[in-house]
Amino acid sequence: MKAFERAVNLFHRHKFENAQRAFTQFIERYPHEAEMVVRARSYLAICEQQLSRPPATPRDAEALYDRGIVELNYGRLREAITYFQKALKREPEAPHILYSLAAAHARLGQIERALEELKEAVKRREVLRIHARRDADFVNLYTHPEFQQLVGWEVVEESPPLPPGTES
Q: pLDDT of 133-155, one tens digit each?
């Protein structure tokens, strides 16, 4: 009974993955509890249905931005770009969103686009110039003279010093 209650508790807290495992374990361990197994299977079906749904798309700019950051951190760059673009449509003057969009484009190797977005972000919030110097997302831009000028590095023929933690 406690195993079933624990699974139901997880279900009611919307922890569907954990609830799914708990109900499955309950069914496997107590197959002789026919009435409880039927109820567990009903809960299990709902868990599977909940887990198969794609997560709802956020609607406000900050929620879209946050989702974009998650995608960027997982390396799903195209998805991140999509979320950043949607966030920017809702909050077109937000420099942090534009900066993150530039970072995603830089990681994709879309240098010109990344530079254009980064320039605009820096124009809106000057401190982003300093952040970009140390941001590993812009490593593809480090040797680009336009990037060097934008972040305040002296334009050099050779590569500028890499930020800490990005040495190869």
A: 999 999 999 999 999 999 998 75
Q: At 133, is the secondary structure helix, strand, or coil? A: helix
Phi, psi of 67 (to 5 degrees): -65, -40
DSSP string, 32-55: T-HHHHHHHHHHHHHHHHHHHSPP
Q: According to CATH, where is 1.25.40.10 located in the chain?
A: 61-151
pLDDT single digits (tens) 44-79: 999 998 888 776 667 899 999 999 999 999 899 999
Q: What is the CATH number of domain 61-151?
A: 1.25.40.10
pTM: 0.61
